[in-house]
Design brief:
- This protein has 9 helices and no strands.
- With about 200 residues, it is an all-alpha fold.
- Helix 1 packs parallel to helix 3, helix 2 packs antiparallel against helix 3 and helix 6 packs antiparallel against helix 7.
- It is globular.
Length: about 200
Amino acid sequence: MEWVAKAGDASWTLGEFSHVKHEISEAEAVFKAARELHSPFGRHGDVADALCDFGEFCRARGELFNAEASYTEAKEIYSRVGWAGKEGNATRALGDVYRVRGELSKAEASYNEAKKLYARVDWEGKVAEVARSLGEVYRIRGDLSKAEALYNEALEIYIRLREQSGSVADVISELGEVYRRQAMFSIVEAPVLAGKEG
């Protein structure tokens, strides 16, 4: 029966190829085939991986509700098999979907959950990435002090891990945007406060 599992791997690869070519019907068909081939042999982690890949494909196409469904199912499987790190990936991807849809409370909850899952398996680089995603949620809301704290958390992790300079530069840029908005609010608030004092 090993050949069937390998066929599942092959179907998955075909799905990735169709994904790159943006051929939605073909990609969907082969991802489903991979799922059906892996499932009977208990390769649940592989099924979840295929679901996440299909979720990515749907998200790239703007099909956010299909992406949500795929990520949610993958998350449940990863949780069941005890793959906390990959569960974190699926949970974070759900947060991304919610953020794009403007459902910021759901995005916040997903990112916080993903952060805890990553911390459980000591994936510090991922903790930093999801801290930035949370920072973006707070920045959108205008909660700049929370955004600042999360961006600084990510920056500290990147520096400690000696991450690529691009990651550090990106966080510094995001912090700069927070400080710029804080300065703008200070300029606007100053005359109002002066008027109250007068």
